[in-house]
Specification:
The structure is a single chain. This protein is 34% helix and 20% strand. The protein has helices at 2-11, 13-24, 36-52, 135-152, 176-182, 184-187, 231-234, 241-250, 273-281, 286-292, 308-314, 354-366, 393-406, 420-429, 454-472, and strands at residues 56-60, 72-76, 87-93, 113-115, 125-127, 160-166, 192-195, 207-212, 214-223, 229-230, 317-325, 335-336, 339-348, 374-383, 386-387, 411-415, 433-435, 451-453. Strands 1-2-6-3-7-17 form a 6-stranded mixed sheet, sandwiched between helices. The chain has a 4-stranded antiparallel sheet with strand order 11-13-9-14. By secondary structure, it is α+β, with helices and mostly antiparallel strands. The protein folds into 2 domains: 2-213 and 386-472, Zn peptidases (Aminopeptidase), CATH 3.40.630; 214-268 and 316-383, 2-Layer Sandwich (Alpha-Beta Plaits). It contains 15 helices and 18 strands. The radius of gyration is 24 Å and the shape is globular.
Length: 476
């Protein structure tokens, strides 16, 4: 039957692309309250497509009555809770990043365009916000489900499947943990989670991701005088919050770019010699990757003693994501600001805990408070790292599905990004997550002119269809 399903995917690809473009036109920007209704529309759109594929689907509110969040889509096959064989939880998100800066887009961010192959992109591709992250990758799974329903007459060909689509992944998943606890009974029977929100090594080298980093995100503010003051009268006589904040944050790294926060590396599980050897054998072209973002090979810097790949996949980081204060308008204004603010985030690896890292960071700051100043410290959001045993039966089945459907060798990799739900599912339900993604490094995710290449979309839909077939036969 799988041959018929794959044939159906091939025959209906133009309609599948049309459906994806329809979804991409909905500006489901979760971080901006002005787009609340668009987020609801995007959730309803997905629920309707799942119903067309034989699922029972509902759009479930999140948050509280006083502070509502963006809804989740929760869908199930009719046999999900009572059937036999493995039970798959598929997770994705329908929300997208803000499209700014708009003047750098070659077409409207929510006016999807299918472009032909060109010098910089050697395959036909869709350009729109969310094309790769994550509507395009979710749509691969949705199309595999549709093809199985058309061919077999059953939702997911009879496989037990639960689908969870979130609407706040791009804005911190603020309500997800509460939602998972409230709906815990819906997920207890699942055997593993499948996510398509990661990438391949290259256009000709698919990959299974078996680990993602966690995240701790903070905003810190250093207060000085109770108002902006004249730098001629007060410069050199008092602490300038911008100067002092810069000096404090510069102490976060030593000469080896090792993070100096007390106890920061407690809990870090070191990569094994086997993992490091396997990653080295992938021969990832770091100079080309740097060149794709406008940097020379000399820019390959980071924590001493680790390769670029190891620093991304197996080491925690500290980053200043933004810093401001005082006068930032046109021309000159000679003031010492009343305060200086920075957003500081940490990418974490197993088994670091985001709450613990934030506490350690805040203690570290308090111990370096400049004279006469005070801190205002905010823990904005975070998520646990997640890693699955490379010998997992579910990972092995997903790898086999990708190899059968693409005819290519599939690598096992980790990624430096964070997907909060994976850590939550591991902590609350003991579920491992297999990341079967088809994005590319140059998809411009979170940037203007985000794209998703049609061969990647095609490989993803086929791989999900074959995975369903293997799991139907419990071929794990």
């Amino acid at each position: 039957m799988i041959d018929q399903v794959l044939k159906k995917l091939e025959q209906t690809e133009p309609q599948a692309i049309d459906r994806l473009c329809e979804w991409l036109r909905i500006a489901s920007i979760s971080a901006d309250p002005e787009f609340t209704y668009q987020c609801k529309d995007a959730a309803r759109w997905a629920a309707e497509r799942l119903e067309e594929s034989g699922f029972t689907a509902r759009v479930v509110p999140t948050g509280t009555e006083e502070q509502p969040g963006h809804p989740c889509v929760l869908a199930k096959t009719s046999n999900a809770d009572s059937g036999t064989g493995p039970h798959v939880l598929f997770y994705g998100h329908y929300d997208v990043q803000p499209p700014d800066p708009l003047d750098l887009w070659e077409s409207g961010p929510f006016d999807p365009v299918v472009k032909k192959a060109e010098a910089t992109t050697p395959a036909d591709h869709i350009v729109a916000r969310g094309a790769s992250d994550d509507k395009g990758q979710v749509a691969m799974f949705l199309e595999a489900l549709r093809a199985w329903k058309d061919v077999s007459g059953e939702a997911a060909g009879g496989l037990r499947v639960t689908v969870l689509l979130e609407g706040e992944e791009e804005s911190g998943s603020e309500n997800l943990e509460k939602f998972l606890k409230e709906q815990e009974a819906e997920f207890k029977g699942c055997d593993f989670c499948l996510i398509s929100d990661t990438g391949m090594i290259s256009r000709t080298r698919p990959a299974i991701t078996y680990g993602v980093r966690g995240l701790a995100y903070t905003q810190i503010r250093l207060h000085g005088p109770d108002k902006d003051v004249h730098s001629g009268f007060w410069g050199g006589r008092m602490p300038n919050p911008l100067n002092e904040l810069s000096k404090v944050l510069a102490q976060m790294w030593d000469e080896n770019r090792h993070i100096t926060i007390d106890g920061f590396y407690d809990g870090v599980i070191e990569a094994t010699d086997e993992e490091r050897a396997a990653w080295k054998a992938l021969n990832i072209d770091i100079p080309t990757m740097l060149g794709n973002i406008g940097l020379s090979p000399e820019a390959d810097i980071g924590e001493a003693g680790f390769t670029s790949v190891e620093r991304e996949w197996a080491r925690p980081t500290a980053e200043i994501n933004g810093m401001w204060g005082g006068y930032m308008g046109a021309g000159a204004k000679t003031v010492i600001p009343a305060y200086a603010t920075a957003k500081v985030s940490f990418r974490l690896v197993a088994d670091q805990d985001p709450d613990d890292i934030v506490k350690k960071f805040f203690r570290w700051l308090e111990g370096r408070t400049p004279p006469g100043c005070r801190w205002e410290l905010e823990d904005m959001h975070g998520g646990h790292p997640s890693s699955v045993d490379p010998t997992s039966r579910w990972l092995a089945t997903a790898r086999r599905a990708m190899e059968q459907s693409t005819g290519m060798e599939v690598a096992l990799i980790k990624t430096g990004g964070s997907i909060p739900v994976a850590g939550m599912l591991k902590d609350s339900l003991g579920l491992d997550t297999v990341f079967m993604g088809f994005g590319l490094d140059d998809d411009r995710v979170h940037s203007p002119n985000e794209k998703f290449e049609l061969p990647c979309f095609r490989m993803g839909a086929r791989s999900h269809a074959v995975l369903i077939d293997l799991l139907r036969g419990d071929g794990a």
